[in-house]
Specification:
8-stranded parallel sheet, globular, TIM Barrel
């Protein structure tokens, strides 16, 4: 089977539900130790600037507030394309992520830029809606121009052990996405244990997820290095088992460049260079881009610019 055929495979409801009782337990102590080592890596000078630019290219620039307006989304799309025009060779971000009702605005503003339009769906962030509503929500986002859909799993059903229900829901949403990529949000802060994070990751990937994502960013804790490492290890083992690559998106609470670089080190040492592209790795963030830009300016000029030089949206 070719890699293209493998990538296009879509799970069908109730077919291929993995036996989660066979998923190995997570060595929590080992995870803690490994994460502590990632944070001791020192990246300097040219390598640091290259890493920071890499981070910028992987950001899903996000606005998911009740007060979002078409004007705010237009401004965010402009920022996505013009992060800092005074700095040479600065990449644009990977995507702009908005609610389904604002996808059409983002699609128009980003047309021809190479920046993807991502949209949350399936009753984000709670996931508390009927399956019919979730499917309709997904199809609407795609019809408005979304290239990527970020769905949330039904955590209540997962905790009840209704794994077939969760699997089927993900598979049906994946079908509703059509050509759009599906990012499955586990909301790891509500999964309680690293073992549950591992099980949910395996379930989502077998159901057809193109990406697995940590969090909605609406609850605490959101993304952590420990949770991200467990998910990366699940992706690695799934790849060894099936030959299918799955992407990863940590989201929520990642607002500092230094922390983002720790995540990149973890990615490189767990999955390798093949995953070190926006095609396979994203940061879900609203504030991270500005801090990364400040650090790049500092490396190039020796001094920080004021935050007034950067737009909030």
């Amino acid at each position: 089977m070719s890699s293209l055929q493998t990538l296009s495979m879509t799970a069908t409801p109730s077919a291929g539900v993995p036996d989660l009782s066979r998923v190995p337990c997570v060595d929590a102590v080992g995870i803690e130790e490994r994460c502590s080592r990632f944070q001791t890596r020192s990246i300097k000078k040219e390598s640091k600037v290259a890493g920071l630019k890499h981070v910028l290219s992987m950001i899903d620039l996000t606005t998911l507030e009740g007060q979002d307006t078409p004007g705010k989304v237009r401004q965010l799309c402009y920022k996505a394309q013009h992060l800092h025009d005074a700095l040479p060779r600065i990449p644009h971000v990977a995507a702009v992520c908005v609610y389904p009702t604002l996808v059409r605005v983002a699609h128009k503003e980003l047309e021809g830029s190479g920046i993807k339009v991502a949209s949350v769906a399936t009753a984000f962030p709670s996931g508390q809606a009927s399956k019919k509503v979730k499917i309709t929500d997904t199809k609407f986002a795609v019809s408005e121009g979304a290239d990527e859909v970020d769905m949330v799993i039904s955590r209540g059903e997962f905790h009840r052990g209704e794994y077939t229900y969760v699997f089927d829901e993900i598979a049906e949403v994946k079908q509703a996405c059509g050509a759009a990529h599906l990012k499955v949000i586990l909301e790891t802060g509500e999964l309680s244990t690293l073992d549950n994070v591992r099980r949910a990751s395996v379930l989502a990937m077998h159901a057809g997820a193109d990406f697995i994502k940590t969090s909605t960013g609406k609850i605490e804790p959101a993304a952590t290095l420990q949770v991200a490492l467990v998910m990366l290890q699940a992706i690695r083992d799934f790849y060894y088992e099936t030959g299918r690559m799955v992407g990863m998106k940590p989201a929520g609470g990642i607002s500092r460049a230094k922390l983002a670089l720790h995540y990149l080190v973890m990615l490189r040492e767990t999955l390798g260079q093949q995953w070190m592209t926006p095609r396979w790795y994203r940061f879900g963030a609203s504030r991270l881009a500005n801090d990364v830009l400040m650090q790049i300016v500092k490396e190039q000029t020796g001094r920080y610019q004021s935050l007034d030089y950067f737009s909030k949206d």
